Amino acid sequence: MIVTTTPSIDGRTVADYLGIVTGEVIVGANLFRDIFASITDLVGGRAGSYERVLERARKEAITEMVDKCKQLGGDALVGCDLDYEVLGKTGSMLMVSISGTAVKLA
């Protein structure tokens, strides 16, 4: 499945726009505390364990969006936008969300 941030796909024609689809993943503070407690790979100010959790959350959000596109009969997603948002009174959770337009290609 093609997933792109661009509004179109070079060399392909959109036959039908099926609607907006989304994917969201929320990661709680306990997970972040556990990660920071076990970080031993801080190099150059980067936290590899933390980055891996964010990467996993992003991939899960994209997978959720792709699954919804497939349910609509789509074979591509255009105009995708990925966002990260801190949630909760104390910023104790992080939400990774992505949205895009499901399309059927010609």
Automatic annotation (TrEMBL):
Q: What InterPro entries does this protein's entry cite?
A: UPF0145_dom_sf, UPF0145_YbjQ-like
Which Pfam families does this one have? YbjQ_1
Query: Which superkingdom?
Result: Bacteria
Family that this chain belongs to:
Belongs to the UPF0145 family.
Name of the featured protein? UPF0145 protein FSZ31_02115
Q: Give the species.
A: Flavisphingopyxis soli
